[in-house]
Amino acid sequence: MSYLPPNPAILPDGQEVKVHGSEAFPFAVYCGIIPTFIPAYPLHYHEEMELIYCEAGSGSITIDRATVTLHTGDVAVILPGQIHAIAAAGAGTFRYYNILFRFSLLEPPDSETYRRFLAPLADGRMEVPAHIQKDSPLGRELPVNVKMLIENRKENTALRIKACLYGVMDALCKAATPARHPAGAEHRDTRLLRQTVQYVDRHYAEKITVAAISAQCGYSSSHFMKRFHDLTGTSFAQYLIHFRLEKAATLLRGSRYTVLEIAARCGFSNASYFTRAFTRQYGVSPTAYRQGGDKTDD
Question: What would the pLDDT profile of 158-177 be if each residue is shown by its tens digit?
């Protein structure tokens, strides 16, 4: 069976707005393989809670301003609104599952259970371990429900899915601790990343200069470039190209625009450069990518 990874829409502030699952049942599971299908997944955020389960290989997950390395059997936990990115760790293949759901699937926001357990995680008053290693006590408890969610992802088993999600949240809430930064007091590095994602998503089709985005974030150009590299492990120029190519991949699969039109819409003024960059990142030309899709068997 061919696998096409989700190509989410992004709001002008960098927020992913793809509906994971449905409005009535906001839950979804995706399988990803890096770099077989995509080389990495760039910085973004969304309203859903996300669990990333490493099935094979090793993955590098950036969450806000920290990076964790997942190995087989490990789980990364991403709370609603946290900026994150996904990449392989090293030269090998990283096969993983994303599990996404909204807290409202479990409890209405005005319920006592939501206010007591879920709201503190949603609004940043409490935090949970971002990296759960398979041999830790939580790592032995959590995957029981995580694997059941993966196994039942194609079945119409709403009650079973909810039961597993309650199990996941029960385990995480028991491990939750007060946030290191008070709710609403966003760390300046997190704010830098969020402002960068927002600016790039608003202007990726235009010419973007380091001077312009540095001024937007309140930094000098040299300080911005150094801080961004320190936080993400990549240069801003590399991130911008990757972001534009990810947008181009979305349009190649989901629009009728020509390759030339897509290149222009994604900020590439030179079509030949776009083709070379796309081929280097995805391993196939834009035309072949549009025609293909049988990258994995999930």
Answer: 899 999 999 999 999 999 99
Q: Where would I find the H helices in 135-270? A: 137-151, 158-175, 188-203, 210-217, 221-232, 236-254, 259-265
As given in the structure block, the two tokens for residue 240 are 């911008």
Residue 58 has pLDDT above 80, yes or no: yes
Whether the ω angle into residue 178 lies within 30 degrees of 0, i.e. cis, is no
pLDDT band at 183, cuts 50/70/90?
Answer: low
Kindly report the CATH class assigned to 188-291. mainly alpha
Strands 75-78 and 49-56: antiparallel
Taking alpha carbons only, the member of 213, 286, 208, 292 closest to residue 245 is 286
CATH number of 27-178: 2.60.120.280
For the CA atoms of 281, 286, 287, 289, the dihedral, rounded to the nearest 10 degrees, stands at 50
Provide the sign of the torsion angle of the four alpha carbons 285, 289, 292, 294, taken in this order: positive
Summary count for the chain: helices (H), strands (E): 11, 11
Question: pLDDT tens-digit profile of 22-54?
Answer: 778 999 999 999 887 777 888 888 889 999 999
Q: What pLDDT is attached to residue 11?
A: 37
Region for residue 64 given its phi and psi (left: phi exceeds 0; alpha: psi -120 to 50; beta: otherwise) = left
Give backbone dihedrals phi and psi of 3, rounded to 5 degrees, phi first: -120, 125
Domain layout of the chain by residue ranges? 27-178, 188-291
